[in-house]
Write a structure and sequence with these properties.
It is a single chain. The chain is built from four helices and five strands; from the N terminus they run βααββββαα. It has about 130 residues and is of the alpha+beta class. The protein has a single domain, classed as YaeB-like fold (2-Layer Sandwich), CATH 3.30.2310. It has a five-stranded mixed beta sheet with strand order 1-5-4-3-2. The longest helix has 17 residues. The radius of gyration is 14 Å and the shape is globular.
């Protein structure tokens, strides 16, 4: 597998990552499945096909993973040519992704891009 993108897990100002917390709260089989789909996202990036991913709007995408009958969605966005930032995860209970979840991801994206730019994003990785 050739990773072209680097996935970053968004952390709030207290250092809490909703996506990592969600993954760690699942059983081992679910963790392996989520991790495999995230690795596929790192390889495919903007070319990640349905049913694994879909574009929502305003630069926000959804990563779609079915876990033990639960439809989970992890929202994300692309930035600085090679990064994918996973904003948060939720259990999808309606036909359409709720606007409140998309708006939460947009708010996170705005906050993230106000803190980081192409020159200082490497701080997150080291």
């Amino acid at each position: 597998m050739n990773k072209k993108w680097q996935v970053l897990y968004y952390s709030d100002s207290s250092g809490k990552s909703h996506v990592e917390d969600f993954i760690n709260s699942r059983n081992l089989n679910n963790q392996v499945k989520i991790t495999a789909v995230i690795e596929y996202l790192e390889e495919m990036g903007v070319n990640m096909p349905r049913p694994y991913a879909d574009y929502l709007h305003d630069g926000i995408y959804e990563l779609r993973v079915k876990l033990s009958g639960d439809e989970t969605r992890t929202l994300y966005f692309f930035c600085f040519e090679k990064y994918i930032v996973l904003t948060h995860t939720f259990l999808k209970k309606t036909q359409k992704v709720p606007d409140s979840e998309i708006n939460k991801a947009i708010k996170i994206k705005t906050e993230f891009l106000s803190r980081f730019n192409k020159d200082n994003i490497e701080e997150l990785i080291t």
